[in-house]
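Box 3.1 A note on notation
Throughout this textbook, protein chains are presented in two layers. The first layer is the amino acid sequence; the second is a token string describing backbone geometry. Keep the layers aligned when reading.
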Amino acid sequence: MPTTHLTRQTKRCTISIVLAVVSLAAALVAAEVLLRLAVPPLDRDLSAMRLAAARREGLSFDPRTTLEVLEDLRAEGIPAFPPVKPFNFLRRTLSIEGREVVPLAGVANATTVFNANETGEHFVYQSDEYGFHNPPGLHLVGNVDITVIGDSFAQGVAVRSDQNIASLLRDRYPQTLNLGMGASGPLIELAILHEYARPLQPRIVLWLYYEANDLSDVMKESQNDILAGYLSGPPAPMLRKLAAPLNRALIDFSNDMLKSYKKSLATARPEPSRFVACLTLAETRRRIASVLGNTSHSPRDELKKSDRDLDLLRRVIRTACDWTEGWGGQFVFVYLPEFARFSDRWDLCADSLRRPEVLAVLEAEGIATIDLLPVFQRHDDPKTLFPFRLPGHYNATGYRLVAETILHGLPPPAESVPE
């Protein structure tokens, strides 16, 4: 009798444990599902969100990958290339005629397929004779009205070539040169200013600053000795003179990069389905790891441990302004806000939290500034300035608002004098 009683007790205990484990597992999976529904997904899911938004709005959306677009263009006999970004050379250099250089632009005179499709159309453009996003023939000494310096927002990612900031400025300032390059931060941009704008001495330099990542970028870029050298008495500009051999090297680099990417795709393990990801609590584990990795300090605290990033930014902007004013030009800093400013569902990037400090640096240095954040905030619905009301670059309406605000704050253009 005691043995029977013990056996029944053991069975009840086992059943209770199994039920508890099953209930806990079900609760965790339910929490995973709710987390995925309630909290914005990772960046890799933005493409799916854009596609779904396009379908809801009855808009066409090109489902091809960047690689597929490239291969389709090449199959048609068009020499298309992926974007070669200066960021690719932070830990390497190219040897051009015995000199080690950091390339600051893409392949020249080529169809460039940027790795971005935020509107339903891939960002494809024809590069100019130095690899920037311009019509040909704008790199004229003494005949440039405006030079636009910046990252992918300056470059015009996500819109057609006639809808980016520089193109819109050309309506009033025909000789506007776009020197924007994706994934570039302030130190790369200073190098671009020195190599490609300084010899031309533009009347106005517009320095576009994207609040979400430029402070972090300047720290990464400062680890490169060649880029850091632009802050301490750089040599005379040379990349324009090395254009032909540099472009040949960039074509080889681009093709090698494409081959490596294809090889990595062939050997990559497929991502698990959403069902499997939910069962393995992928999102829950990722967010727990993220929290545990930041238990001792917030992003703002981490950045405030040192003001080296702010000091680097100050030095870069001061140098750029001094160069510009040295040839009789006008330097204007343009502050660009990120999407998270206008949505409760997305967290502000750590760099964006430093806005008051960045503006304080500009004020202390006496830098002329056009601040787009209050302009966006006054808009009836700022999220409509971004494709499908989702994080990313501005849409055509957003870029036009930026261009119009800049034009409102600039003097009338001077008469252009042919070279």
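Residues 2-38 form the longest helix (37 residues). Confidence is low (pLDDT under 50) at residues 39-43, 293-305.
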